[in-house]
């Protein structure tokens, strides 16, 4: 289990709000839509044990999460990359479930700001 990281870095969120201004809500909606797509990619590639596709999805998702200041999600995606690199199905399944949980936990925090 990853160390307990904040769901969102408030400094990153403030910087994004200041930078994006009226487009901040659109940024959040795009991130949430991308999150749904990435979760599908993770689950699909895990089910097929396609470790390269799983690693790529986790890597891309990690970058998106990092850009949004989603600290715990970014760390979990890093761990998913490692599980894929090791072709560790048990670890990948555990981390994939953790990513699902973190996505559910972060969604209301983001939608209240959109």
TrEMBL record:
<dbReference type="GO" id="GO:0004672">
    <property type="term" value="F:protein kinase activity"/>
</dbReference>
<protein>
    <submittedName>
        <fullName>Hpt domain-containing protein</fullName>
    </submittedName>
</protein>
<dbReference type="InterPro" id="IPR008207">
    <property type="entry name" value="Sig_transdc_His_kin_Hpt_dom"/>
</dbReference>
<keyword id="KW-0597">Phosphoprotein</keyword>
<keyword id="KW-0902">Two-component regulatory system</keyword>
<dbReference type="GO" id="GO:0000160">
    <property type="term" value="P:phosphorelay signal transduction system"/>
</dbReference>
<feature type="modified residue" description="Phosphohistidine">
    <location>
        <position position="59"/>
    </location>
</feature>
<dbReference type="Pfam" id="PF01627">
    <property type="entry name" value="Hpt"/>
</dbReference>
<dbReference type="InterPro" id="IPR036641">
    <property type="entry name" value="HPT_dom_sf"/>
</dbReference>
<feature type="domain" description="HPt">
    <location>
        <begin position="20"/>
        <end position="114"/>
    </location>
</feature>
């Amino acid at each position: 289990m990853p160390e307990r990281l904040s769901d969102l870095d408030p400094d990153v969120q403030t910087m994004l709000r200041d930078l994006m201004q009226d487009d901040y809500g659109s940024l959040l909606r795009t991130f949430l839509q991308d999150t749904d797509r990435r979760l599908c990619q993770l689950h699909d590639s895990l089910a097929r044990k396609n470790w390269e596709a799983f690693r790529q999805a986790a890597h891309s998702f990690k970058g998106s999460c990092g850009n949004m200041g989603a600290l715990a999600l970014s760390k979990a995606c890093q761990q998913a990359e490692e599980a894929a690199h090791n072709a560790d199905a048990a670890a990948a399944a555990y981390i994939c479930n953790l990513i699902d949980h973190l996505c559910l936990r972060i969604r209301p925090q983001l939608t209240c700001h959109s």
